[in-house]
């Protein structure tokens, strides 16, 4: 297979931010507006359930089994609303990022669209989630059976194997999104042919990107906390500086709440660029260096 630079891919998100400041600014604005609307709808329709669930979770003694059942019942409507919303946001984000990297000249609407490309990204995300759930669920069943017969050590090994398996699948399938966007069709298991023999290079690039994302996030949070503490003279106020009050619409729609949402939108876009850019960058390098062989049939 063609070669790629793992180090260049790991830092590709920073390069994209530097070279596309206007686009990144539009993404932050859009993410902020969409998040405000989604949070407002969540508070309006599910605010009472969220408050009840939060009170159960903050119980010093911990929720009882009956309370856990009640918590699940209370949170089900919220999950049924947030899951489709998160999938749509993820689909639009992945498609926009792939469009920015693979088709840089196609910059209409700041690369943001809602169409077949986005729908295919949602399908790939769902397939990935289902596969990982199947692996974890299967391993949990095996662990339960082994625990019933006293196989403690084997249970631990199975759980460790499940974690390793999940990481392995995530890395080997990491180019499925980029390939799906490039080919205009669902590509899932076929993407493993492209990542064959490159597991450790891919893993290294993704780990470095994840570490850099955490470092950037911590630095920005420390700066904001310090600034709030200096301005207000109250270190306890700094703890709430980045957390919007979602107890009611009235408390949510305040100047500080809007600023907090703007910060959240900024961090969401920056984290997405740092974390998600390596995969499409690597795929683009592979395609330009050598067309990967793949079977025509199947996913």
Describe the structure.
Helix content is 78%, strand content 0%. The protein has 299 residues and is an all-alpha fold. The protein has one domain (6-289). Helix 2 crosses helix 12 (255-276), helix 3 crosses helix 12 and helix 5 packs antiparallel against helix 7 (176-183). It is globular and about 55 Å long. The mean pLDDT is 84.
SSE layout and pairing:
Elements: H1 6-10, H2 12-19, H3 21-57, H4 65-102, H5 116-148, H6 152-172, H7 176-183, H8 191-195, H9 199-232, H10 235-239, H11 249-252, H12 255-276, H13 278-289
Helix pairs in contact: 2-12, 3-4, 3-12, 4-5, 4-7, 5-6, 5-7, 9-12
The tally of beta strands, per DSSP, is 0
The 3D shape can be described as globular
The residue fraction in helices comes out at: over 70%
The secondary-structure element order is HHHHHHHHHHHHH
- Our measurement of the CA-to-CA distance between the termini, rounded to an integer number of angstroms, reads 20 Å
Look at the helices and sheets and give the structural class. mainly alpha
Poorly predicted runs: none
Number of alpha- plus pi-helical segments: 13
| Oligomeric state of the chains in view | single chain
Mind describing the biggest β-sheet? none
Range of strand content: under 5%
The radius of gyration over CA amounts to: 22 Å
For the residues shown, what is the average pLDDT? 84
The number of distinct structural domains comes to 1
Protein name: Glycerophosphoryl diester phosphodiesterase membrane domain-containing protein
Keywords: Membrane, Transmembrane, Transmembrane helix
Transmembrane segments: 24-47, 83-101, 122-147, 153-171, 199-232, 252-276
């Amino acid at each position: 297979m063609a070669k790629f630079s793992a180090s260049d891919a790991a830092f590709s998100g920073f390069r994209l931010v530097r070279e596309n400041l206007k686009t990144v600014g539009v993404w932050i604005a859009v993410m902020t507006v969409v998040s405000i609307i989604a949070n407002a709808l969540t508070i309006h329709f599910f605010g009472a359930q969220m408050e009840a669930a939060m009170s159960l979770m903050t119980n010093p003694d911990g929720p009882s089994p009956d309370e856990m059942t009640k918590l699940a019942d209370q949170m089900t409507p919220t999950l049924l609303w947030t899951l489709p919303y998160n999938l749509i946001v993820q689909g639009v984000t992945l498609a926009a990022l792939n469009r920015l990297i693979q088709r840089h000249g196609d910059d209409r609407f700041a690369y943001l669209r809602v169409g077949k490309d986005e729908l295919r990204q949602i399908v790939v995300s769902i397939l990935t989630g289902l596969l990982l759930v199947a692996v974890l669920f299967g391993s949990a069943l095996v662990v339960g059976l082994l625990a019933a017969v006293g196989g403690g050590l084997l249970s631990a090994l199975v759980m460790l194997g499940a974690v390793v398996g999940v990481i392995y699948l995530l890395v080997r399938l990491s180019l499925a999104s980029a390939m799906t966007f490039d080919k205009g069709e669902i590509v899932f298991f076929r993407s493993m042919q492209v990542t064959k023999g490159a597991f450790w290079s891919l893993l290294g690039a993704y780990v470095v990107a994840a570490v850099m994302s955490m470092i950037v996030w911590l630095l920005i949070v420390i700066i904001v906390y310090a600034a709030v503490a200096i301005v207000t003279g109250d270190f306890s106020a700094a703890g709430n500086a980045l957390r919007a009050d979602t107890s009611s619409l009235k408390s949510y729609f305040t100047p500080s709440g809007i600023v907090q949402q703007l910060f959240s939108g900024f961090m969401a876009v920056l984290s997405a660029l740092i974390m998600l850019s390596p995969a499409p960058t690597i795929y683009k390098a592979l395609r330009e260096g050598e067309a990967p062989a793949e079977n025509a049939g199947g996913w």
